[in-house]
Automatic annotation (TrEMBL):
Belongs to the peptidase A22B family. GO terms for molecular function: aspartic endopeptidase activity, intramembrane cleaving. Keywords: Hydrolase, Membrane, Transmembrane, Transmembrane helix. Pfam families: Peptidase_A22B (PF04258). This is Signal peptide peptidase-like 3. It is found in: Endomembrane system; Membrane. One of its GO terms (cellular component) is Golgi-associated vesicle membrane. InterPro entries: Peptidase_A22B_SPP, Preselin/SPP. The chain crosses the membrane at residues 12-30, 36-57, 78-97, 103-122, 129-150, 203-222, 250-272, 278-296. It is a multi-pass membrane protein. One of its GO terms (biological process) is membrane protein proteolysis.
Length: 320
C-alpha cells in the first residue's frame, strides 16, 4: 500500500501532546465545535467502514460483475464493489444519525480502528515504546489527575458528552418547525466502544486508542515474526531460551498480554467503580513480556532500532 503512514520517533513523542491539545479543545469548546466534529467524525466513519466492507463486497460482486471501473466524471472511477461498500457505509451512518443506537456506533468505531491499523505502521520497537509510553502518561494524567487542575475529569467528560444531532441543528437553522428534529437523539460519537451491563443500567467504555495503539504493536510483532521466519528459514535463532520456547511467537506473547491487560483493567474498573486508564494496564502487559522475550531470544537489538524490509513476494503475509 502506497498510502501507509509510518510513525517515526518525533511523531511518537509529539502524538500525546497533540492528543492532549485536542482533548482540551473538546473540553473547553465542545458546544462550539460539536456539530463540525460530529460531521467530520461521520465522514471519517463512512470512509473507514466502507474500507472494512470492501473485501466482503468484492467477494459478493465477483461472480456477477467484472472488475471494470465505472466513471463518475471528476469524482473518479470506481468498481461495483467499491460503490456497494460505500453505499452500505453511508446507509449505516444515516441510520446511526437517525437512531443513535450504540450497536451502530460500535460498528463505526470498529471500522475506524481497522482503518487506522491498516494504514499506520510502527517501524521498530524503539518507536513502539516511545509511542505507548507517552500515551500511557497521557492516559493516566487525564483520567487520574486532570480533576485536580480543571475541577473535572477531562477524559471522562469528553468521552461521555453527547453531541447535538446535525439533523436537529439543521432543522432549527432552516426554521423547519420544532417537531422536525425533535425525535432524533443526541449522538454519542464513535471514538469508543460501549458495552451495556447485564442489567442495562449503564455502559462500559473502551476508547479506540486503547484498541488501535496496542493493535499497531501487534501488527509490528506479527510482521517481525514473518520477517524472522523468512530470514532464518524457521530455524531457531541464538538466545537464552530452550527450543520449545523459541517457537513461541512474539505475536502470541503480545496478544496474550493484551488480553490479560484488558481483563485487569476491567477488574480494576469494577473494584474501584471509577474510570480507569486502560493503557495503564495494557502497556505494561504487552511491552514488558515482549521486551523480555526479545532479550531472551537475542532479537532485542534488531527489533529495537533496525527497520526491517521484506520482499514484495511476501507482502501478503506482512500487510496486516
Amino acid at each position: 500500500m502506497d498510502c501507509i503512514q509510518t510513525i517515526d520517533s518525533t511523531q511518537a513523542l509529539f502524538l500525546p501532546i497533540g492528543a492532549s491539545v485536542s482533548l482540551l479543545v473538546m473540553f473547553f469548546f465542545f458546544d462550539s465545535v460539536q456539530v463540525v466534529f460530529t460531521i467530520c467524525t461521520a465522514v471519517l466513519a463512512t470512509i473507514a467502514f466502507a474500507f472494512l466492507l470492501l473485501p466482503m463486497c468484492q467477494y459478493l460482486t465477483r461472480p456477477c460483475s467484472p472488475q471494470n471501473k465505472i466513471s463518475f466524471g471528476c469524482c473518479g472511477r470506481f468498481t461495483l464493489a467499491e460503490l456497494l461498500s460505500f453505499s452500505l457505509s453511508v446507509l449505516l451512518v444515516l441510520i446511526w444519525v437517525l437512531t443513535g443506537h450504540w450497536l451502530l456506533m460500535d460498528a463505526l468505531a470498529m471500522g475506524l480502528c481497522v482503518a487506522m491499523i491498516a494504514f499506520v505502521r510502527l517501524p521498530s520497537l524503539k518507536v513502539s515504546c516511545l509511542l505507548l509510553s507517552g500515551l500511557l502518561i497521557y492516559d493516566v494524567f487525564w483520567v487520574f489527575f486532570s480533576a485536580y487542575i480543571f475541577n473535572s475529569n477531562v477524559m471522562v467528560k469528553v468521552a461521555t458528552q453527547p453531541a447535538e444531532n446535525p439533523i436537529d441543528v439543521l432543522s432549527r437553522k432552516l426554521h423547519l418547525g420544532p417537531g422536525m428534529g425533535r425525535d432524533v437523539p443526541r449522538l454519542s460519537l464513535p471514538g469508543k466502544l460501549v458495552f451495556p451491563s447485564s442489567t442495562g443500567s449503564h455502559f462500559s467504555m473502551l476508547g479506540i486508542g486503547d484498541i488501535v495503539m496496542p493493535g499497531l504493536l501487534l501488527c509490528f510483532v506479527l510482521r517481525y515474526d514473518n520477517y524472522k521466519k523468512q530470514a532464518n528459514g524457521e530455524v531457531p535463532g541464538p538466545g537464552n531460551m530452550p527450543g520449545r520456547m523459541q517457537r513461541v511467537s512474539y505475536f502470541h506473547c503480545t496478544l496474550i498480554g493484551y488480553f490479560v491487560g484488558l481483563l485487569t483493567a476491567t477488574v480494576a474498573s469494577r473494584i474501584h467503580r471509577a474510570a480507569q486508564p486502560a493503557l495503564l494496564y495494557l502497556v505494561p502487559f504487552t511491552l514488558l513480556p515482549l521486551l523480555t522475550m526479545a532479550y531472551l531470544k537475542g532479537d532485542l537489538r534488531r527489533m529495537w532500532s533496525e527497520p526491517f524490509h521484506t520482499k514484495s513476494s511476501s507482502s501478503r503475509f506482512l500487510e496486516v
